[in-house]
Design brief:
Order of helices and strands: HEEEEHHEEEHHH
CATH class: Alpha Beta
Number of domains: 1
CATH architecture: 3-Layer(bba) Sandwich
Helix content: 25-40%
Structural class: alpha+beta
Shape: globular
Length: about 190
Amino acid sequence: MNKTAIFLALAFMALGGPLARGTAMPKFPARVDAEGTPLALRSTGIFKARVFFSVYAAALYLEEGVSSARVLEDVPKRLELHYFYSIPASVMVEEGGSALAANLSPDQRELLRERILQLNAAYRDVKPGERYALTYVPGRGTVLSLNGEEICRIDGADFAAAYFRVWLGEKPSSRALKKALLGPAG
């Protein structure tokens, strides 16, 4: 079990909330509009802490005809997360920081430092049923939205490629979730 899964499980226990087993996949729209770019639902998966505690469901969206193997390239994409529990923003910042440290060199993180801090400052606590979406459109940047409301926009294809690695990089926060979103070869 990775450090992030342990951290999330301990955070849930500290919050006093029970962890559900076998939570059902919520509905995600088949298509979303990313600032005029239509994106299609590619796949879904569930992030689990301690192997069987469902924390959130994720949906990956890409343009029609774009292979999931190209997800970290300069292509429009969206990752939508539906939370099953209340989670403090600090847990999301910690999870992202751990995954970025595993996927990027110190020099790469330093180049992105200010933009990572900007995103971290935008995170808000979430309640069950709420949804974060991270949407990247080339030339327009990466948008973090909560329940459909834009709360932060960050420039740069380099930032998008780095931050999507949290879930889809070589060392993601959950290998099982990455496999569900990208398939076995992803």
